[in-house]
Amino acid sequence: MSTTKAGWRSGRWEAHPDAKAAAKALDEIRDQVDRANITGPLVASRDGLLPASDTQEIEDDSVAAMAAASVGLATRFVGQAGLGEARGAMFQGSLGHICVFPVQGPVLVVVFARPDTTMGLFNVVARQAPALLQDALTTGN
What we know:
- This is Roadblock/LC7 domain-containing protein.
- The chain contains 4 helices and 6 strands.
- By secondary structure, the chain is of the alpha+beta class.
- The protein has a 6-stranded antiparallel β-sheet.
């Protein structure tokens, strides 16, 4: 089991008000998501910063920045297509899946899955993380 990383190595996030709440929220949801399929969540801000992560072997800071960009693009794309409000951005790769969900205010959650997880199962399981994170942030504030 990985450990939750809060703050950024340079200390940039230590002063951010969401850092402690995000780290606590990831601690609370770590055992509640389906770990057979989900390999780790990451919390990002809409401005691309990283308050907390429960991932292994990825560049968390780069992923946080790309998460913010992907939600921005999803919002524009869905809006332009007249499909209402964007609820997330999902990507499928040869080595796994990734989904970015807006949670509350400036908070995003990024969820990773194993390559053998079907997109249907990933969609169901990945939606646990934002709901659990929303609850944890709401009760933690």
